[in-house]
Amino acid sequence: xxxxxxxxxxxAGGVLIGLSATLLMAMNGRIAGMTGxxxxxxxxxxxxxxxxxxxxxxxxxxxxxxxxxxxEIAYAVPVSLPLLILGGLIVGVGxxxxxxxxxxxxxxxxxxxxxxxxxxxxxxxxxxxxTVYVVRHIAEI
Length: 141
Prior knowledge:
This protein has helices spanning 7-28, 34-39, 49-68, 81-97, 102-111, 115-138. The chain is mainly alpha-helical.
């Protein structure tokens, strides 16, 4: 599988993620971890559910606006649907036991120099590197 190198789009996306995380922390005092935001809208609802829904709607609507503006989102899923579902369940278990997701630990936690987040992010990155190596060079899925 070939991966397209998109440094400018990646930089723009990173800036927008950083800006949104900074604004959420500055304006609401909250961390922009997608898992924490999502769990706040699942019953029993938290008292601050409105900004959570607005944040999630923005995360869904922004790519749609990008597509309508003429952008293209290229993606490939190199595994079968059952493996994709299994991977999602494994990630969900990891998020639960890791007390957060990649956005919460990697973007916000590391920016706050949280030792737990730095350790979690190092674990994410190592697991990602091993997974990519196995999928691209060892496994025939």
